[in-house]
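Quick one: structure tokens for this chain, please?
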Amino acid sequence: MKVHTALGPGFLESVYEACLVHEWRKRGLRTAAHLPLPVNYDGERIDLGFRLDILVENTLVVEIKAVDATMPVHQAPLITFLKLSGKYVGLLSNFNVVHLRGGIRRMVQGEPPSVSSVSSVFKTLVST
């Protein structure tokens, strides 16, 4: 929320991504951006150029958008990244909105990890 409040809508996705990573690292969260995600097929790792926007605390996948409205086509990469990474929860965050709370969509995939690991990450993110 802090990043969106400071910048508002209208910037490129890369701007929001860099600012989010900066804010979360200031709060002590392990945050990585542009992580490569290979596809494992037939015993081989195949690099197809997939990259996670942001991974927080090795738990939460964040996909950043700056579009007029999110569509199913914008959800597909997040679903793919959750499958490939083996992570359970992700956020599709569209910053091109008046109020960010209307631009965030939570998605889950697969089996849930321990509740404590996910809830601690969300508690820290909520204060951002």
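Strands lie at 31-36, 39-41, 44-46, 51-56, 60-65, 89-94, 104-108.
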